[in-house]
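Weekly puzzle thread! Below is a chain. First person to post its structure in token form gets bragging rights.
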Amino acid sequence: MRARQTEPRIADATRSAWSVAGKRQRSDMAVWKSAWPVCALLWLAVSLGQSEAAPVDRRPSGRDIYRQQCAKCHGRSGQGVKGKYDDALHGDWALERLTRYIDRNMPENDPDKCKGPDAAAVARYIYDAFYSREARLRNHPPRVELARLTNRQYVNAVADLLKHFTGADSPPGEERGLPGSYFKSRNFRSDTNAFERVDRQVNFEFGESGPFNTPERPPQPGGTNEFSMRWQGSVLADESGDHEFILKTPNGARLWVNDEDTPLIDAGVASGTATEHKATVRLIGGRAYPLRLDFFKFKEKTAAIVLRWKPPHGVDEPIPARNLSPARVAPTFVVPTPLPPDDSSVGYERGVAVSKAWDEAATQAAIEVANFVAKQLDRLSSSKPKDEDRAAKVEAFCLEFVETAFRRPLTKEQKRLFVSAQFAHSPKVEDAVKRVVLLTLKSPRFLYLGLEGSQADDFAVAERLAFGLWDSLPDQELLKAAGTGLLRTREQVTQQSNRMQADPRARAKMQSFLHQWLQLNHTDDLSKDAQLFPGFTPEIIADLRASLNLFLADTVWSASSDYRQLLLAEHLYVNNRLAQFYGVQTNATDDFVKAVFDGRERSGVLTHPYLLAAFAYQKSTSPIHRGVFLTRNIVGRALKPPPMAVAFKDEEFAPNLSMREKVEQLTRAQACQNCHSVINPLGFSLEHYDAVGRFRTREGERPINAVSDYTTDAGQTIRLTGARDLANFAASSDQAQNGFIEQLFHHVVKQPILAYGANALPNLRRAFVESGFNIRKLLAEIVTVSALHGVEKPVVSSKR
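Winning reply:
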């Protein structure tokens, strides 16, 4: 009725207005000035009439819905709200999945409040405004940040800084064991040298006969009971940390490790009974260290010698042949000062935390280096105190020391500040050297990466390459290339990268990444209930870690270097001890051999017993721990922190329930299912493996059920019947591959990948696919992208 009453009023007003206008017959602006208010009223009346006659659907926009229903928990810009939802609203879900999640679950206190079109509208707003990768890049463009050296980089840089003056070592060859010289005297006289050979281990029980009285070497007439042996070569450290060396002998012996002057163990006085002598030394993983062992027998009745060690994550055992080499190498200086842990809050270690503790540790480390340099000054400067040109040689050494530490030639002013001025103000040469070393190692030019900012030059490219591949300083060849302008194209940089990957330091860095990827740094205690898993000893655990390291190295450094084989390979490395425990039929001895399994039982790292045991309880499996690991690290999906921490207590469940049934019962609440709908299917797929990684078909009297439906981010349902299905899915998943690429980039470059442009990840993935998923080529591509950042024009990719 209201609409019909309005129409006559509109008509009367219209006739009145135009009647007045017709009578005046004016063409000037005065007509419009007097008529426009009336016309405006007419337009408003017509609009109101039409609105009342045919109401328009004015649904709130996605932005409005978000601010009304979401912002109080997630923040106006998705930044999070402390005490409600702390994390920023970022993620990698597809828009469709985000929409479905909101439609089913949001708001948490009233999920029916936002359904259908409203859920779609707010999901689109969230996705475009701040959730997606593109939105994050637009709103908060990441940048390459100034960063100090990480602990690993600092230790490596100092080691190679001093190695620069003692000569670079050639990588150890393939031969293993220690060369030994056997003497028929107790004082190593050359005229009594009976024979030489390479011993795979030093583990001998000679008894009363000695090494010469064997069928191959019968005793000689007029012989003596005195003899000695000298083994000299190198020991290879797998991982960084303290290494305890143990000598057990009733005779006399001395052991030198990473020090050619002072023995680590001096047991020169024989006891006559088997006695253990122990000492600890810190070593950097992935390097070779000089080792010399002298043994001598005089009047003791029997003779025996065993050289053992206890490395990080290892057990007390005779040093394996794989860790001994005939190669002769120079000592490596290892910083003895403990450094505070690096920040790893974003998933990888970064040098962004500059604290008082770190500054004090860096100062103490610099003092240790200065004292060492002063003590070894003759060797490092190739001079002697009585040389007439001693001062000139030492000053030249200091100049080279600073340039090597700073990774570039010095300016005239820098030469004066860091070198000349220190000699001018120090009466003693040794004091000047200490001042130079302290000033250098405390300078930001040594401690920080990226001081050049966006103005990267050839030496900055060299620095990026070296720290990317080695976590250390550029070598002489790399600095020479920088000085001659041979690091300015992708081809030149890639050529250097390929050369540098042959260095053991590149292998060490790749191993450190793989350990991070597989979370090995968080799996120190793998012990199990001794009654349920008899025989799962510390020796088995140490063997499993060695087995996993061998598998990783074999896969990455093989000809194909195929990422997919990390997940799909059907073999493990086992020694005799592992073969017996896991029931493997093989000819393994104390050395590791490759054992091939039925593809239904083993699938790469996913079913390696070390990882399966690491992500399990002491008495049972843990589908949740395994599932979380698989979700984040293998499949490449993000997980938000659980809304509530619920501890698994096995005693609270009925004893006849399987582990799968217990987990389903524990996580059936809707609040849990938001994440466990992803976690559980992945974890259940590994239920064919018990808490120590043995394949099984039954859990007690119950058959194993490893079948689950896994829903991808895109909403696709994948049927998983076990580890092989999971491996096949992950190996072919774009998301899993992108996750691997991104994690490797962050570990290598230690900067956010988005700081290198929105196309960095798509371009790397395209190159990865084209290379046949070659990990080493991916590594080369990553360091090339990093090294040439700001130097070459970015490549635009149209592929995602």
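Puzzle host: Confirmed. Bonus trivia for everyone else. Confidence is low (pLDDT under 50) at residues 1-54, 795-800.
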